[in-house]
Amino acid sequence: MLELLKGAPVAEAINQRTQELSEHLRSLGVSPTLALLRVGEREDDIAYEQSAMKRCEKAGVDTRSVILPADVSQKGLIAAIEELNCDKAVHGILLFMPLPKHLDGEATRRALSPEKDVDGISYGSLAGVFTGSGEGFPPCTAKACIEILDFYGIDCTGKNAVVVGRSLVVGRPLAMMLMEKNATVTICHTKTQNLPSVTKEAQLLIAAVGKAKAIGAEHLSTGQVLIDVGINFVDGKMCGDVDFPAAEAVSGFVTPVPGGVGSVTTAVLASHVTEAARRFADSP
């Protein structure tokens, strides 16, 4: 029988911790605050901004929207980031990506302060993930996967984990985080030969492909834990990277789409803001 690893109770538990820490910080005169930096008026950015603001409000995190025109210059964007980096009332910065094509994403990532980069897109934050130094914050989606595993008591120690996808947003940082939890990790990608032979051997399989139903029956085996990171739309309906009907044919555990990893991600974002505020409060 396939058991669902639902995201809602995980998000609720994270929000409870976040609220408690936020209340403590406010008693010390520190109000955890997230700046949402958006360039232009992309509908998906606006939708996520609204969702993040609602989640932060419930978790006791203040928000501030900083909206730049779609034709902002690189100099103007960097200036806005540097202003937020220096603003002591702002503890976290969420920069919406991708940026318009005329802007330099690499330079923009470098401009973000790792201490305030709560979505883990700066190179300083990623270096912290890869070295285990604790600097900055991991990408929220990757951290959401770990939160789900922890909440449901899934021990990664000694497990054969396969991550399908090598992006800097999920695949590669998540692989590092799984190794920190003592899993033996294999990263697969579009050039991996005979992918099903690799994924079938996984005890823990993470699908971060970005393609609807890319992981089908031929990739799966009985008893696996499936973490489906994908958010895709087919005929107007949301689905993941895992072919859910195919997964239902084998026993194991799976995160649903919708209602799985995505529902935990914004809760992680709010928790990162409060943690950044705590670090600020504890700094000399």
Account of the protein in words:
- It is a single chain.
- The chain is of the alpha/beta class.
- The chain has 2 domains: 29-116, 3-Layer(aba) Sandwich (Rossmann fold); 140-261, Rossmann fold.
- The protein is 42% helix and 17% strand.
- The chain has 10 helices and 11 strands.
- It has helices spanning 8-27, 43-59, 74-86, 105-111, 123-131, 140-151, 171-180, 195-199, 244-248, 261-282, and strands at 2-4, 33-39, 62-68, 92-95, 160-164, 184-188, 204-207, 224-228, 232-234, 237-239, 252-254.
- The strands form 3 sheets. It has a 6-stranded parallel beta sheet. A 3-stranded parallel beta sheet has the order 3-2-4, with helices on both faces.
- Helix 6 (140-151) runs parallel beside helix 7 (171-180).
- The longest helix has 22 residues, at 261-282.
- It starts with a strand and ends with a helix.
Quick recap:
42% of the residues lie in helices and 17% in strands.
Could you list some keywords that capture this structure?
11 strands, 3-stranded parallel β-sheet, 284 residues, 6-stranded parallel β-sheet, alpha/beta, Rossmann fold, 2 domains
Low-confidence stretches: none
Mean pLDDT: 94
Q: Can you give the helix content as a percent range?
A: 40-55%
Which descriptor suits the 3D outline? globular
Q: Based on the structure given, which CATH architecture of the largest domain is correct?
A: 3-Layer(aba) Sandwich
